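pasting for ref. prot 1 ->
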Amino acid sequence: MSTKGGVTALPRRNYRLASDMDKPRSTGIVNEKLLSDYLHHVFPSTKPGPTVASLRKPLGFQDLSSHLEKLLSEGETPEEENKDPSAEGRLGPQPVVLDHTSGFEGLLFVDDDLLGVIGHSNFSSIRATTCVFKGKWAYEVLISSQGLMQIGWCTLSCRFNQEEGVGDTPDSYAYDGNRVRKWNVTTTNYGKSWAAGDIVSCLIDLDEGTITFCLNGQSLGTAFSSIKTGPGVAYFPAISLSFKESVAFNFGSRPLRYYPAEGYLPLQDPPTADLLKAHRLLGYIKNVLSTSIDTQEEKLLEKDSAVWRLQGEPTVLITLAHIFNLFAPLMCKVYLVEDVLMNFLLGILEGGGSVDEHPLIQQLLDLFWLLMEDHEVNECLKQLMMSLLRAYRFSPIIPDLGFQIHYLRLTTAILRHEKSRKYLLKKITFDVLRSVVFFYIKTPLRVKEAGLEELIPTTWWPTHFDKEGKDEREPKDESSDERLRRRAYERGCQRLKKRIEVVEDLQVQILRLLLNNKDKNTGEASRYIFLNKFRKFLQENASNRGHPTALCPPEYMVCFLHRLITAVRSSWDEGSRKSPSSLSSEDAYVPPQLFYNGKVDYFDLQRLGGLLSHLKKTLKDDLATKANIVIDPAEIQAASMDDLDEDEESGAAQSCQRPFGAAAMGGALARPSWLSSPTLGRANRFLSTAAVSLMTPRRPLSQPEKVKVRTLAVEQRTEEDIEGSHGNDGLLLGRPQEEPDQPITDKSLLEIIDGIVMMYNLSVHQQLGKMVVVADEVHEYAVALKDTEEKIARCPTRRADILDELQKSQKVFSEKLNHLSRRLAWINATIYSKEKMLDVYWLLCVCIQTIEHADNTASLFAFTPEFYLNVAMNAYSALKNYFSPANSMDELPGYEETLTQLAAILAKHFADPRIVGTDIKDSLMQALASYVCYPQSLRAVERIPEEQRVAMMRNLLAPYEQRPWAQTNWILVTALPPVCQGCGFGYRYTRLPHLLKTKPEDANLPSLQKPCPSLLLQRHMAELLSTDKDMAASFLNSVLNQLNWAFSEFIGMIQEIQQAAERPERNFVDTRQLKVCATCFDLSVSLLRVLEMTVTLVPEIFLDWTRPSAELLLRRLAQLLNQVLNRVTAEKNLFDRVVNLRLPGLESVDHYPILVAVTGILVRILVDGDKQGTSRAASVLLSDPCFQLHSIQHLLGEPAESAGPTASASERKHFSLHAYTDYISLEEKQKVEEMLEFLTEESKQAAASTAPTSEEDLCPICYAHSISAVFRPCTHKSCKACINQHLMNNKDCFFCKATITGVEDYSKPSSSLVS
């Protein structure tokens, strides 16, 4: 006997006992008669013969091999006789695969077995190696993605290219489930839409000349008839698919999932002889399992096979060894594993109950490992898991999800076997399989076939909307019928949710098995194998962002993330119950030392402080003093050199490495990670230099010893490296002094949580945003249906034609809503349920806690990966935008405190000098801007400590010269105006008033957030601008500069738009240009609101001329206001003409938003101020050469004097504040009238008192003011306004470019006045 893996195994070819020849009448195990009866019972003959034991020939182990071979040969027919005569209509090799040598066009990835294919170019095509010319044939295509593909048949003469594929040439025929059409040069509607997880059967009848397609076993009808047949015509299976689309073919190498109609054969012959042998051998195994030997009574007993145990009985073991001698080689073939073994194991679990109630599968796996060679068990398990995954993924959705539950139960049973689980984890689960599929619950595209009509018989959708077009959660005027419908729909949704939860519980059970850290009997615990494989899985998806074909689909990642969170939290809490001093999962966080001690590989992901190699150089002293980690200079040098030549080396390495899969480009392309084992690329090799020595003692109470780092690859780590032991902190090596010294949880769980956060950042958040589109569609159709029903109610009875069309539309909308509401119920149960919301909320809390702990480490905060801040911001955004209104954020535990913590993080870190990445800084700025737009989050900002609030406002008001341009826009446009929205002049709207006037029923109009002004933040802003005069001047200068730029750009763009519209030829304005134009307009309006807020809060900045820059700022403000008024209010001007074009994309461009903003500023400085201030403001405004009184009159709809009393009504009709009574209060209108009266009087007095000025005395720069300043040392002159504005941005003289050292007042000499 031999020993394998600690288990005794019998030799393969000789099971004859040594005593058999010496003692022919004794077996040495049981008596000869009883053994003979037992063997005859286990191995019954299929031929008629004596049934009485006394008449049968005695059978012992010495005769068993020949007897078994004789039994297996019974019923066999010679190969020539067994051959199906209909197979003569086929040409080509067996097995049938995809032709990756010559039968393709374009770029393709082809799987190892030459059956799976992924498109990697615009429109790629490939055919099989075998063709058919007569008879009936079929093959199946497993749809992995639901995009653009054309599947069918083609002849050898078909020539495809990047634009034309299968079905686009005369002798090719295809079905396209994406566009629901059939193709043969021309195209017509055909079939149903397919979805990922569907199976398409392609049938060709060359005797009748027809081609038919089936979807999930249901015939779609004859697609083509009278196809070309005859001599020289043979058809190949073929497919054309676009970029990223993927399928897998089954020509017969595995059992067809849906056996075709009678008479059709798979292209590849099934292994009939092996299939017969496997079924017979399995029958013999079943006989062994159901038979026991009573040695005392010397008789055989029938028993339930479910209670069979592998107890080491020699008779049973040797009998099974003879069977497995023939059975084991057969179990290495995929067809036999799927058809024989998988169905047998599934049958064991058919009785129901928990998986624990069926120990027979564990016993059988023990038997496999005992009696089969290691390579045979490995291959058998590999094929078994692949078959299970394929069956799970491509099973149709039925109401009770029975198929999915069935396959998951067997997967759970197999993974309960320790040795099998560890082998699958090490070699199969992540390396070969898309194992994440096991945690995915696909969304049905066709609700009727999925049985959702039975599960949710009553549908419902919102029918009540508020003024902003949003759904009301519990409308007060809901009728009793509507309430009954809604409640019936909610009950149906709950039924669906409970059935989905059964599948989710099984998926969590699988992950709990993979996270087992106690199964150390056969080597390393499962959790540590899983952890290293999980990390490599993340590396694949993080390092291949530019190669979509290599990425795990985001819909899989979403489900995987939720199941993993549930399993990890369960394991965490289980450990915390055993150790009361450790944290619960509610308070989970990732300690900061994971980010810099090198034990966890973050690949090439960006850190907050920049590149890791840079941080290791610049912060090496801080690492030594705060974390007792010393970076080896040789490691830093190696990292620096590696960074220089990394690309060249990695390119050479990849070119020398033979790809695992056959790329249909002559092997020029490396296969995606899904189709082969991942290889170590740039990120792993480069960043692995940050790993730490394992021989590190635990931090002693005395002066700690410095630790020197060395390289350590992820796959080389052991349990000790992760958890630590006997003086080794494992993953928590290098604890900073600020970090509390208390147990958290198993260190392996910390790294898994870190991976969960990374996974959310990679693709989960993006997918959560995509799935909201179904809810949006429901809303749009509900609004359209309600609008249609209102039109039907108003339709005159005499217009039967209109009524008929409206009723047709009503029917279409209702049918679509019935479908979408059921589909939405599925999505809400699988993606947006309350439990999933709690998962995302927990992830948000983890990120917040982690950031806070990392922030306490001072400079070491720079090592924190950027994705922690990204996930914190995105998780909050998802909770606010994606899960509502189905679930309310207010119901989350401790939500207000969490909001405050997040507000403190955003307020502190948006201007944190430790953060260097421009993208993450922009994201922080945008998040903060969004945060202050909503009442609940704005209150959270107000709850943070006052010191942090003041620091935040100081950073917001900092001059933009120190920031990137994009951040400046966000600061000035988004972060500040919401602070004052609701306080500004006519600034209380959420829908643009001018659009509501023209399109009151349009639900798609742009909307703004409801005003929620913060008096507290306004007070902080006022105090800062009042006390810090230099900062106030710099801030307002930046605002005025940007307003000047934005409005000038806007005017230039509308000139181009107007010119394009007036050309006689038909011209279309570029949508991008329209978008930029609208953005410049919105920016101008927002900047004007910022100025209005500043004038309101701190009027002395402009009106107190004891401040050095007040007069200059007031003159610049007046100049810009006059420019805006003149451009917008002039009669029949450019602005009017473009607004009247009503171009799509320019909906926000109108008189009201910009004119009320300008009016608000004018009212603040001319009406609301003290007498001295208003006098100064009026004087500056009137002295500006661009000032025109009729622009102010225009605000109240008063015609310009030039129009005259005889002007027509159309000429007199223009903008007026009187037309917006819902948005302009009576008090505001009175102030405008008062302002107009005041300016009218002041302008008359100014005109009477203004003395003529000679041209020589005017400023040579602006020609608007008298010369009042002289420059030193060059003595050139200008007015004070021009030189002060110039010196804010430049120190060189206007004229001679000499550096200006001083500016003195200038007055004209008296002699000049006399002369």
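and prot 2 ->
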Amino acid sequence: MYCSNVQALAGDAVFPNVFSLSKSETDDDKKHNTATSSGGSAGSHKKKAHGDQPPPEPTSPPPPAASSAQQGSDLDSSVERNHLMKKVYPKLQLYCAERGWELHIVDLHQGLVSELSHVSYMQRCCLDELASCQQHPYIFVLFLNDLYGVTIPPSIEADDFQQMLAAAKDPEQAAILNKWYTADAVVMPATVEINNKERLELKESAILLAALFNAMTAVQRDKYMCSVMEQEVRRGILHDNFDPDTVLWVNRTFSGFPHDVAAHPNCCDYADAAAADGDADVVRFVRDRLSMLKKQVHHRLLMNRSNVLRHQVEWHERHGVCPEKVPEHGAYVEKMCAQFEESAQRVVDKIVRSRQEKEEDKPFKRITDKLHQDLGNSHSYCKSLLESYVEWPAPLQHVENYTKNAHTTQPLVVHGPRGSGKGALLAKVVSRCSQWLSDCICVFRFVKASPGCSLGDTLRSICEQLAIIYGLPRGWQVKEPFGEIMRRLPGDRTLIILVDGIDECRPYDDIRGVDWVPVTLPTNVKVIVTVGDDTSCMAELQNRFSDAACYYQMPPVTQQVAESVFRTVAQACGRTISDKRADETLAAVRACTSPLHVQLLSRLACVSRDDDVARCVGGTLDEQIVKAIDDAGRNAASASLLRHALGYLLLARDGVSHAELLDLLSCDNTALDSVAAAAAADPAVRRFPPLLWARLAAALEPYLLTNVIGGRQLLRLRHRSMADLLRARHAADDVDLNAPLREYFSGRWANGAEKPAAAAGKKKGTGSDRCVAAQPEKFADSVYNSRRLTELPHAAHACASDDASAAEYLFDVNWLLAKLHGCDVHQVIQDVMLAIAKAHGDQDLQLLLEVLRLSSHALENDPSQLFVQLGIRLNKLMSDSADAAYPRMRKLYEAVTAEDRDYFEPSALECLLSPRADTAADDTAAAAAADGKRGVVVSSIYRLKATNKFMVCLLYERGEIHVWDMHACAVVRTLRGLSAPRDTKFIDDLKAVVLCNRELKIYNLDTGEMEVKLKGIMNQKMPFYELHDQNHVVSMSRNRMYIHVIQISTGDTQSTFKAGEDRFLNSLTVSSNGHYLVCGDETQKPTPLLVWDLNNRKLIYDLRINNHEFQTKMLTVSSDGHFVVCACKEVISEDAINNVVIYDLTTGTVFKKWKPGYNTTAIAISSEADWVTTALDNGNILLWDLTTGTCKFTMKGHYSAVDNLIASTDGSRLLSYDSTGFDRSVRLWDLNTGKCLGALTLDDNIVSCQLSPDGSMVALALPGWENVLTLRLRKQPLQPDTESYGSPDRAENVYTVAE
């Protein structure tokens, strides 16, 4: 007897398995993922992003998989496992999903008749599945009771088998051995394989087992008679890297269990009495092995006994374990499920914490999760191509010559028929680039590696990588042609860009055709693309490039190359082919003209047991493609099952995961009917048997490709040629599988819903719970179901005959918001274009497409801006259009503007481009922006101390100062004629110290008079000055060695003090109360901070930290003068991460020191609210409690580091933005809750930004804008205010200042 004893649950945050957990891509992950991930080091990711070669190991996260690998008969633990499948696993999957992880359950015995435990592929599948699980975090669930489950060996070495035949006790034993084992003439050295053509019944399997056991030596028994369950336990638990926290042992024992097991038929399902037909020697052998195994497992779990779930159950003679008929057994099952759920949740929490800790230790390299995914997929695919690559000198030499030609300014188009080796050639080029050109940068993409990828996605991904390599702002390339981008890049290193399969990109995108391919390239840039012959893409390229030197035709494969491919495939198959078969196969492959054809023929010859080699290797490429798929699947599945399984892979937008395919087949009555002979007659859980899919997947493995999409590993066909042919065959079958896909991803049959059965013998209308995964749009905050959001619209479009599906999703504001969070804006754009393809001329869809394109950069980085982006961009059009125009878009607009959300409303709608605007005006503006002609008008904005209504703007180029009324959005004072105003400090709301070029001058902004010119000339690069009080200015001397205290009323220097001999200052900061002056000294090493008591005019502290230097650009002093905060960095290593240090100025000692783990880029402090905020280079902002030193909030939203933090006067709100343009968004935070109150990403960079003292309004200066743009929160309307600036009689006065 054989029973299922081992269950593996696999998981890794959406990447877990044996209980395998897998890490899902949360909304935060999308925006804030670091450069590294599981399976790769920070260095390997840096190499990827920077194009270093050769390609490192793929670092994409492992596949989501939770596997339950069970061997032998499932009778021993079937009750427990079925209850877990129905009652616990769905809740556990949701528990994981809410934490951003996927739990994949794999139970290879579920739903099978027990006799199939003996088939040869059972052992291979189980061990292979376990090995797959162990690549990820996993939970090993063990059902180890009183059943060992010895298994018939699937293969035996031929020499051992001959010894067994010779040792057989009688001819009958020899005959049964010869009956069930067949020599494999193809494999060398020779083996015998179990014969699966006939079904091995339970009785005969016992006889065969006894014959094998009695014919074996002791050594051979250890080699061949070890049960699959024991092998799993040894590989999963009894190994050096074992973690006891990842094992759950469900150990059930019976009280009152009969000693004479053979006399009680029901006992045979729970003990090994029936093994080998009751042979005493076999039973003794089995019991000894089981006892030893239990002791070893028990010893390994001594350190974590809480994961051993022990239960004692009263034996019931008639029913064994039957919770439906025995109340005590029902109570046992309920208790077991509750304990299991609690223990499994504890293990999941540990896995999640461990992954989070690893993520926190990774350096930030500005690599987004999407880019990381693209890099990982391309590197993995490139590696797989290199593994089967054979030397083909001619094509490689041609590409090498192109890359080394310093005079070539055109791209290279490598073309050829399908299967001609274009992708393999580019993979080899990737590995050779660094050898050809030692200092080159290689950026490459394989379109096949990203199934959902459009041409726009590919180009955006390349440009994002280039932005990281060259230190450019993210999104800098959004509106520029690809060729123009190439010309803007530095020319000090050769840049090689390779794109394989540009004709295989998805057709629906905002970028189409080949117009993006540059006609002329800089001499240091080389672009190589591959394209298939006889494609529209190739025809367009030929129209665009007439020079024959731009093209290279892949030559026919030579006989030498064909033979090398054959030997490589044979080696990859792990088989040594006999000389006769090798000669026959080589004769066939020499006639092939493409590497793909050679590969298919070679694989068929290697794996087929057909004696007629000619039948294996004959036919055209198309015939061989179909034959290869059918031959791989024919021994593993019926024709209908194979076509349905392949159909789901073909029709899904991005492919499907193993778990999803199991769910789909479980809901597919045709698939279930096709395995009726192997499935249990009346299973407690009606699902497709996982073992049968595992077997089919293993057979199809050479023809399948795995990609990481949205944090999930998805399967699809490896070759487009295969996909095209099978898709045509599927269409001819007239079987609609789009509807099942739509039903599955809509969750129709989840959450206990019973799907009617269509199998013969079933009562009409009867149904069963298929136990498929739930498909909500959102699992938890920031954890969206990206698979539903991706596949459901795609399946709906395929099912619908018109654009009804588009209306269902695309104009639903809640769906749009969820999809933007769970996927990205470009996928939404593709959905819209797919709908437009069905509904030509639909104005609503066209308008939605246009507004999404305009907002794409903002929505890509912050989907929550859907409301503010659509609200502003559609405002004018919706106001000007008739009510009947754009009915669905008007409804969407009303939903956006009526939504109860507190987002920014701008003072001018022109801050964002509107759809359907004046094309000529837009083109002019765009051209001016591209040429850098849009000059800065307002150069800086400053807030006043005592008013929330007015701000002051400097216009450096014009030599003007404006006083701006934030409420009226108007200038109330203008001062002209100033000499290059660069900065200002306010004595009060009407008087200011203005830095004009290198001089300090006192101006009355109300009257427009220059009152005093302060003596002295400032340093050109460091013109630092501050107010000591209303009567004195503190400034740094021209030579940066002295500090001057200047009398404001006279302009004369009142006192001067020196930092020291030959000591040069590099910063100057004064506390708001004027008591302390803090300067940085760049001369001394390590660099100190110098603190003066301004009231007494003396140096009081020389602050230093050994082996550290202060980064005085991030130095600030609390308003009460109690604390000084500064970033400091260890000087030992250039790559060291800086820290934040707080000094108590009353004692001169370190008060707090924080090490956030990422570089700090900006600091703000509020003594009123008792906090410090620090901006990090991963885009996060931390709020620290100044008293306790703890981090209160981590505020996420920026996708790049910010360099400006501005707090409201009372410290309740914080404004953050990046002046460098890497992040064009401005954000307002509530520091009492850590939540973002409002955010807006603009179409242009931010020149300057300021927050009103009460934190209610934001003022922005934009390129080319004379006026200040003001933002206020929607739910905080302006209050009536009659306040005037200065004298009301001088309102809107314009002064020309006399110097």
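The CA atoms of residues 570 and 1283 lie 87 Å apart.
The longest helix spans residues 327-360.
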